[in-house]
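User: Structure tokens for this complex, please. No commentary.
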Amino acid sequence: MQRDHGGNLDVAQARFGGDDWIDLSTGINRQPWPVPPLSEVAWRCLPTARAESRLIRVAADWYGCRREQLLPVAGASAAIQLLPRILCLGRAAVLAPSYNEHAASLGAAGWQVRAAPGIEEMAGADLAVVVNPNNPDGREWSPARLMALAATVGRLVVDESFADPRPDLSLARDLPGNAVVLRSFGKFWGLAGLRLGFIIAQPDLLAQLRDAAGPWSVNGPALEIAAAAMADLPWADQTVTYHSEASLRLDHVAQKAGWQPVGGTHLFRLYDTPDAPAAQERLARARIWSRRFPYSDRWLRLGIPGTRTEWDRLLMALTP
Amino acid sequence: MQRDHGGNLDVAQARFGGDDWIDLSTGINRQPWPVPPLSEVAWRCLPTARAESRLIRVAADWYGCRREQLLPVAGASAAIQLLPRILCLGRAAVLAPSYNEHAASLGAAGWQVRAAPGIEEMAGADLAVVVNPNNPDGREWSPARLMALAATVGRLVVDESFADPRPDLSLARDLPGNAVVLRSFGKFWGLAGLRLGFIIAQPDLLAQLRDAAGPWSVNGPALEIAAAAMADLPWADQTVTYHSEASLRLDHVAQKAGWQPVGGTHLFRLYDTPDAPAAQERLARARIWSRRFPYSDRWLRLGIPGTRTEWDRLLMALTP
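Assistant:
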């Protein structure tokens, strides 16, 4: 089954032509952490346990979790594929609407999947899946509310792919025993091509996941780059500040174009438009790619422009 | 369970000290394909379907298979982890001794695993796993013999991780319907840090594997680098020529040190030594790392030195 995702810029290019697109169809930071020249070893050699330990130290500091609770994997996506195949099958309640890969992956692995419009509808499930803050609508839940939820379900998976600018939302610092937190490296640091994410869970479950992922599941450049990027706290501060302001600015621009903000995160915003296909096409004619959803004719999601040039083109496209 | 592998150079460094090690503990080419500067897109963006198609075109030419039979994955390792969880469980016959991850991964997924000393002992198995040429002893089987084997088992998996210099051995050009071929990119092109491999199989099985791997399972730099590397036929010719000669030269050097060649491939050689722990330590004192096997006190495997400096140090270490 072909699942619907953002990041399909090549489809847009084929349909509308042109090369110099601004891809706002994802929530990937458009101002990536500046990658320095890599050690030759990162390319040539099998990733070492030492390189992985170095990354785990830095990442555990960033997430505020214990090192033995942290496993690097080849993207949050890899975690989403692995988990349903490792846990004992049962009935899963998955937040909806949300990132569609959770329900799809659980279903493919044989889980009985139920869409839950809110976390209140999840009690009693063998597995509850929440995205916090949620993609695409930006709904968010405090750690206290998620801890209460964890007490009513067999296991709780919280996908915190967009939580880097919001450590106050994270369950990683005080992880309930039956909770699993998923984190994405590529979005906040703007390096999605690297394929890196993390699973935060109790060590026994982590050991099973590590075995199932197999040896050397994360590439060498990712281990090296992320260990440096996640220790660069001044860059992170600056990135959070920029996106705090820029996300409000994007809402303002959208409202002037007649689109109502539904919600969002620091890294993307969701708008209610009178006609989403028309809105997407209007932007596409200016070679700006946006994200639509198969279940809505009105919703359009936009990532945050990264440079003055990108803002200018967006403003031009939305000025009548 | 911690499985035993080569590539654990950090263990050797911790034990013997020193930084300037020559790692001959793997079969990874020590003269890697020279990686040019990458496009910024490779790091920043989610890997596109276009980048994947480009790689599939080039790789299908290299392997001589049909494009629709080829799936890039995050290393041959990822394939070895995925397959046992996708196929229906049953009784597997796995060549032994061989690369130990096959039996381990099948066992972890719930297969009943039997070690087969040769392919003659595999008939009737639901799944037969052969490494061709074999690691570590270099045994090899012609496509005709493997086709005959395929007719007697439910499914045949052939791990051709070391077959790049030996296209005559590959089953990829004329794939039996129930066969799956695994290929590794990192070894021949010397870029194991990238984590790239391929599965060659019938399109229906490939579609299941693609779903299980999830979206964006291969990182962007790997897609870009491999598409260029696998099209560089002059480099490949030169690499095969060098390793043909160098592997014979290594056998010669080893024999003079009293080690008998057992077999091997273009990318590694296996020796029967009077005392493998002593042989490994002798090399380690010269900061050359080699590979031992938990099941043998005599076998030592060596990768092929890549430069004059590496040869010189090896010769010094082995001269009485």
